[in-house]
Specification:
Blueprint: H1 4-8, H2 10-13, H3 16-47, H4 49-76, E1 82-89, E2 96-103, E3 109-111, E4 117-119, E5 139-143, E6 148-152, H5 178-189, H6 194-208, E7 218-222
Antiparallel strand pairs: 1-2, 2-5, 3-4, 3-6, 6-7
Helix pairs in contact: 3-4
Length: 233
């Protein structure tokens, strides 16, 4: 019986080379759409900075998701977690407006000048690259003078944390350092400058020793104060 495959001989046309061409074409189109979105966002920011920042963050994360999702579909299963944001100086020059969105990434810690500290309540967001149709929701806060915003990767909270003379045993049932231990650490540390927060986290990582099983990145943002006229990060 003569079939469609005999008529069109798909194997002559759907070769690995053709598949790769269409794959990279899809990636290039995604990137071009992303560039158009960025330009549109910048134009919007000229008239409405707040709306423009939200549009720009959604465009950047959406473009990254599209590019990684193409690889994910090629059995590469490439995905990642991301937190991305923009800072805008306030008109009075005493702080910043911070707009953030995340895709599966750990929530940042906000240490206020009054000594309080807690995770920033914001939507978790989807893993970058795992799905085609995704939506990212932004969260906006004001970073006041002497406030510090601490961003970190999960290599910190997922480290094994045996008890030492300087550190009580973690309450995380998995035996890892955990979110609650880090929250308590931040509350003891606050208020803190950005530089002091990073130094404290480095000391904490050193105390974990061989319990660290993954790489860790830390970024701290602080607004200027009278004693510290330049913002630190």
């Amino acid at each position: 019986m003569l079939g469609i495959g005999d008529l069109f001989q798909w194997e002559r046309f759907v070769t690995p080379t053709v598949i790769k061409v269409f794959y990279w074409l899809a990636v290039v189109i995604s990137l071009l759409l992303g560039i158009v979105g960025v330009v549109t966002s910048l134009n919007t920011m000229a008239f409405n900075p707040f709306v423009g920042m939200i549009f720009l963050i959604a465009t950047v994360l959406g473009t990254l998701n599209s590019a990684l999702h193409e690889q994910y579909l090629q059995d590469d299963r490439s995905f990642c977690t991301v937190i991305f944001g923009l800072l805008r100086p306030d008109g009075d020059g005493d702080g910043f407006t911070v707009t953030l969105a995340r895709g599966g990434h750990a929530a940042p810690l906000l240490m206020r000048a009054d000594g309080t500290a807690d995770y920033l309540p914001m939507p978790l967001g989807p893993l970058i690259g795992a799905w085609a149709d995704v939506v990212f929701t932004t969260t906006t806060i004001r970073l006041n003078p002497a406030d510090t915003l601490l961003l970190f990767t999960d290599g910190l909270t997922e480290a094994r944390a045996p008890a030492t003379e300087a550190r009580a045993p973690t309450t995380d049932p998995s035996g890892r350092y955990g979110d609650e231990a880090l929250r308590a650490f931040a509350r003891e540390l606050a208020p803190s400058t950005a530089a002091a927060a990073v130094t404290a986290i480095i000391s904490l990582l050193d105390s974990l020793g061989e319990g660290r099983q993954d790489d860790t990145a830390v970024l701290a943002l602080g607004a200027r104060t009278a004693d510290n006229p330049m913002p630190s990060a």
